[in-house]
Specification:
Shape: globular
CATH superfamily of the domain at 4-97: Protein tyrosine phosphatase superfamily
Largest sheet: 5 strands, mixed
CATH class of the domain at 4-97: Alpha Beta
Strand content: 5-15%
Strand order of the largest sheet: 1-2-5-3-4
CATH architecture of the domain at 4-97: Alpha-Beta Complex
Mean pLDDT: 95
CATH topology of the domain at 4-97: Protein-Tyrosine Phosphatase, Chain A
Radius of gyration: 14 Å
């Protein structure tokens, strides 16, 4: 398990397993957000198994599966709704954590200074400078 804080209320992780959920709850997280579609890779845990383990550990759970490289306006709206409605801190996961940070970065545009977005993502080990620059250009 590789939990990477982006802000006080939002962290990301590469793929988690059902057996990780008690430790995630013990670390103080209150919600888990899945951004990975089922069946993306062989051996990947099923989202229903993660959801059941999350609920058994006392965590809220929401799935907003995003196909890598194909973010739609509806995806972004669902991601924003999850962040607004689920109790924080939230742990979001996908294959590597990059999709989650990318969605978070897009969601923060207009709410947070671009330099702060890039710095927060970098602090978690992700380079969002190119994405943020592209978003700034419109």
């Amino acid at each position: 398990m590789d939990l990477r804080p982006v802000t006080e209320d939002f962290s990301v992780s590469p793929q988690i397993a059902p057996e990780d959920l008690p430790a995630i709850a013990a670390a103080g997280y209150r919600s888990v957000l899945c951004n990975r579609p089922d069946g993306e890779a062989p051996g990947q845990p099923d989202v229903k198994a993660i959801e059941a383990a999350a609920k058994a550990a006392g965590l809220e759970f929401r799935a907003v599966p995003i196909t890598s490289g194909q973010v739609t306006e509806q995806d972004l709206a669902a991601f924003n709704a999850a962040l607004a409605e689920e109790p924080s801190p939230v742990l979001a996961y996908c294959r590597s954590g990059t999709r989650c940070v990318m969605l978070w970065s897009i969601a923060q545009m207009g709410r947070m200074e671009p330099e702060r977005i890039v710095a927060a993502a970098a602090g978690a080990g992700y380079d969002m400078s190119g994405l943020v620059a592209q978003l700034q250009r419109g």
